[in-house]
Amino acid sequence: MRKNIAITESSKGGQLQPPLMADKAFLILKSLLINGNLKAGQFISISDLVTIIKLPLAPVREAVKHAESLGFLTVLPKKGLVVMQASPTLIKECFHLRSIFDQEGARDLIENSRVTITHLINLKKKHLQILKSAQKGINAKLQNEAMEVDWEMHSLLGSSINNGVAQQSYEHNKDCLWIIQRSRPPLPDRIIPAMTEHLEIIDALISGNADKSTKLIRKHFQQTLRWWGFI
């Protein structure tokens, strides 16, 4: 489960106070993880982490405890910590869970009209632009842009599930996948197929075909596992 950032009210006037320092440290730590500044499997000492986060030791330790409770890292007593290992089992399970959420999200999106056709068309345009650019040549900037657009579609599907508990699980799994994917950025030979698979899913969503959408999402999941070397 994701921790709610602590916002407290003062006894005078009920004014909102800034987040606790430990919460701030956790947000910085999570940003370092999902942005790839701390990579899957990397070892780092607490003292080095304090230097990077630029906050006192106590709140950084609290942030580390929270991150460990979420599975983002493992604390090695008197040594330091290791960022979440991108093991084959974890990779498969996280992508499988995303596929399950995406399929339910696609049905919910279609059956309850949770987004407009215009929104889907705009998302399609972004994918076509990435595809067009990738066909001309791929660089590090385009790889990052492709990852952002890729997640925009998956997040759209996940956010279409009208269930608070499911949303928390989806967001936690998303954070885990960000850490995993930073260990292996999208390679040129995956960007074009991934964008093509997404476009097929988006077209099925636009047409309102829930069965076709879920079938294509399952196909996309299988292709993703194949790219990671599991099939």
Which SSEs are present, and which pair or pack?
Elements: H1 21-34, E1 43-44, H2 46-53, H3 57-69, E2 73-76, E3 80-83, H4 88-112, H5 117-136, H6 140-159, H7 164-182, H8 188-207, H9 210-227
Antiparallel strand pairs: 1-3, 2-3
Helix pairs in contact: 1-3, 4-6, 4-7, 4-9, 5-6, 5-8, 6-8, 8-9
Short précis:
With 231 residues, this protein is mainly α.
Please provide a written account of the structure.
There is one protein chain. With 231 residues, this protein is mostly helical. The protein has two domains: 21-83, Arc Repressor Mutant, subunit A; 88-227, GntR ligand-binding domain-like (Four Helix Bundle (Hemerythrin (Met), subunit A)), CATH 1.20.120. Helices cover 68% and strands 4% of the residues. The chain is built from nine helices and three strands, in the order H-E-H-H-E-E-H-H-H-H-H-H. It has helices spanning 21-34, 46-53, 57-69, 88-112, 117-136, 140-159, 164-182, 188-207, 210-227; strands spanning 43-44, 73-76, 80-83. The protein has a three-stranded antiparallel beta sheet. Helix 1 packs across helix 3 and helix 4 (88-112) packs across helix 6 (140-159). The longest helix has 25 residues, at 88-112. It is globular, with a radius of gyration of 20 Å. The two termini are 31 Å apart. Residues 1-18 have low confidence and may be disordered.
